[in-house]
């Protein structure tokens, strides 16, 4: 195998710098091999072709286990060829044996960044710089290249919500299926849209507060006030109002306040301190 900028040998003592540190910039596929190993010699060119097809978005590092048995032992290599993929300093995927090229592509494809992944990452960088239109173009290109890229869908939907394009956002979000990593975030964004629509329909926070001042026991007004608070991003205030509705009537509108609270938990982070605190209070009211 020919060495190059994306394919290189790791000398003893160089693993930490060449692989672990480097994997923070791009994934590094590590091939543990030896000269005498015939399956290793068969797998080597396959790995070079597959990793090379990522055009620099990943690197291939070769560790000769005879020359560096300590590194092989540290990562639990008991047979060769053994392949481990490092991302951000950790093993993200691995396999053993001289597998056929289609199988190697399938395994590595699950953990290595595609061209569309790179477009989304570039869009994220542009977002951080405040270049929203350029970022949106990257997300659109990613979705054109992979119509099922849920990361691009979620980001485009977020931008649509910020512009008030609720229907466009809803169309994108409802395409994100339950098994996608972005599904919970999509549910949270859909909740933002629904809270905003309710707030607009009832006339906003002030109108609901005025109704409550006149009729403190008006659960509809309290529920709608909670939606207005959530639409404004006052999630703690919204959770408190939803909880008060449930405390007064546990079956209010088929427990709609409970569903709203669960959506807010998705928005603030399901394991955040706020979500944990109100999850306990919710359980106390319902059970």
Account of the 3D structure:
By secondary structure, this protein is α/β, with parallel strands linked by helices. It folds into 3 domains: 103 residues, 3-Layer(aba) Sandwich (Glutaredoxin); 67 residues, Tetratricopeptide repeat domain (Serine Threonine Protein Phosphatase 5, Tetratricopeptide repeat), CATH 1.25.40; 91 residues, Serine Threonine Protein Phosphatase 5, Tetratricopeptide repeat, CATH 1.25.40.10. The protein has 14 helices and 5 strands. Helix 2 crosses helix 4. 34% of the residues are buried.
Please describe the structure with a list of short key phrases separated by commas or semicolons.
287 residues, alpha/beta, Glutaredoxin, Serine Threonine Protein Phosphatase 5, Tetratricopeptide repeat, 3 domains, 5-stranded mixed sheet, 14 helices
């Amino acid at each position: 195998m020919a060495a190059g900028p994306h394919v290189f040998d790791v000398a003893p003592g160089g693993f930490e710098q060449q692989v672990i540190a480097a994997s923070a910039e791009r994934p590094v596929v590590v091939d543990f091999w030896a000269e005498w190993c015939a399956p290793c010699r068969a797998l080597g060119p396959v790995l070079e072709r597959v990793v090379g097809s990522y055009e620099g978005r990943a690197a291939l590092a070769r560790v000769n286990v005879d020359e560096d048995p300590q590194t092989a032992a540290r990562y639990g290599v008991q047979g060769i060829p053994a392949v481990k993929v490092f991302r951000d300093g950790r093993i993200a995927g691995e396999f053993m044996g001289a597998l056929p090229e289609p199988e190697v592509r399938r395994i590595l494809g699950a953990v290595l960044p595609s061209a569309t992944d790179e477009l989304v990452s570039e869009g994220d960088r542009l977002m951080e710089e405040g270049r929203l239109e350029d970022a949106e173009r990257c997300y659109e290109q990613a979705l054109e290249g992979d119509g099922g890229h849920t990361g691009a869908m979620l980001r485009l939907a977020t931008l649509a919500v910020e512009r008030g394009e609720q229907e466009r956002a809803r169309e994108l979000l409802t395409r994100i299926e339950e098994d996608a990593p972005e599904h919970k975030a999509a549910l949270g964004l859909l909740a933002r849209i629904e809270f905003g629509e309710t707030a607009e329909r009832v006339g906003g926070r002030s109108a609901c507060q005025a109704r409550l001042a006149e009729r403190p026991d008006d659960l509809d007004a309290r529920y709608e006030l909670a939606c207005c608070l959530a639409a404004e991003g006052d999630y703690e205030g919204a959770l408190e109002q939803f909880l008060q509705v449930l405390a007064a009537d546990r079956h209010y509108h088929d427990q709609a306040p409970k569903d709203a609270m669960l959506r807010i938990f998705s928005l603030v982070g399901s394991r955040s301190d706020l979500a944990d605190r109100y999850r306990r209070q919710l359980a106390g009211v319902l059970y």
